[in-house]
Amino acid sequence: MADEANRAAFMEIQGRMIELTAKLKQVQNQMRNKEGEKKRAFLTLEEIRPLPDDANTYKSIGRTFVLEPKSVLVNEQEQKLKDSESAIGSLQTSKEYIEKQIGEVESNLRELLNQDPSLARQIMSMTVM
Fold it and tell me: Which residues contact 76 (CB under 8 A, 6 or more apart)?
């Protein structure tokens, strides 16, 4: 009976670990995307700022380009930069929280395996297909 309870607990912990690992990968991908957006906005600003205020600047909308004043483009890029930085900050907080949860799940798994060595032997004898 205790063996079945430990096996069920192991399956639950394993499911939780898989779920948390997937969430962590998702957050890391989102952070990578936001870093790219931030870098593009920064580089665009670096190219736009030295232009004279009366220079013709164009904004890409789909496959067309629309004439926009330089000030509008600068404001848009600055806003993208700020938005990306705030998103990266919140994603970093989420990442740290998920990593903490993963650590807790790992310690629960270690505790379970130390509590029931026969379960650890069964797990080690399983083959992954």
Answer: 59
* Cβ within 8 Å of residue 59, ≥6 positions away: 65, 66, 68, 72, 73, 76
**In the structure encoding, which two tokens stand for residue 103, read together?**
């650590």
Residue 32 has a CB neighbour count (10 Å cut-off) of 11
Name the β-bridge partners of 73.
none
3-class SS of residue 58: strand
Q: Residue 91: how many CB atoms within 10 A of its CB?
A: 20
**Sequential pLDDT tens for the chain (129 residues):** 467 888 888 889 989 999 999 999 999 999 999 999 999 999 999 999 999 999 999 999 999 999 999 999 999 999 999 999 999 999 999 999 999 999 999 999 888 888 877 777 777 777 554
